[in-house]
Amino acid sequence: MRKKHFVLTDQSGFTLIESIFSIVVLTILMSLLPLMYNSLSAIDRSISLEEDFEWNIFLIQLRDELGTVDSCRFGTERVYLIKNTISIKYERFQWDIRRQVGDKGHEVVLQNVRKFDVKDEAHMLVINVEFINGTKEEARFIMPAREEGEIFSTKEAPFYPLH
């Protein structure tokens, strides 16, 4: 006599409901991956430590010099300071902002700068910088009142940065 073997008995595996549930969970997780990637990329771009560190050092140095200079004037892409008859210039050169003291040599103070804009808004020195990676920074320094394009004396009022 022959024994009958049932193929479907005593097998362990996924049922149809378990398979559908697994596919739904996998689909939800896969749909969240682009969102998580975009969020992490945005955070990474905004926490550019090197440029942020460099920007803060630039602001501290400029603030300290503005507080001790005798006179100041500026153009679209430069700041010209006079301290004890020594000229100090901050100007854009190619992709850098450089500082020159006494018309001797240059020191790079900001790198990878796409746009450097210096202007006067309501008795404030406003500096806008856009880096090559698209990060934009702005700093404001309170200045004494003066005429357009006129050199002024900082001994009348101190500079205070608003950052």
Automatic annotation (TrEMBL):
Which GO BP terms sit in this record? establishment of competence for transformation
Instruction: Report keywords, A-Z.
Output: Competence, Membrane, Transmembrane, Transmembrane helix
Q: Which residues cross the membrane?
A: 12-37
- Record carries keyword Transcription regulation: no
**Subcellular location per the Swiss-Prot or TrEMBL entry:** Cell surface
Pull one GO CC term from this UniProt entry: cell surface
Q: Mainly localized where? A: other
One protein family per Pfam = ComGF
Could you tell me what this protein is called?
Answer: Prepilin-type N-terminal cleavage/methylation domain-containing protein
Species this chain originates from: Siminovitchia acidinfaciens
Q: What is the lineage of its organism?
A: Bacteria, Bacillati, Bacillota, Bacilli, Bacillales
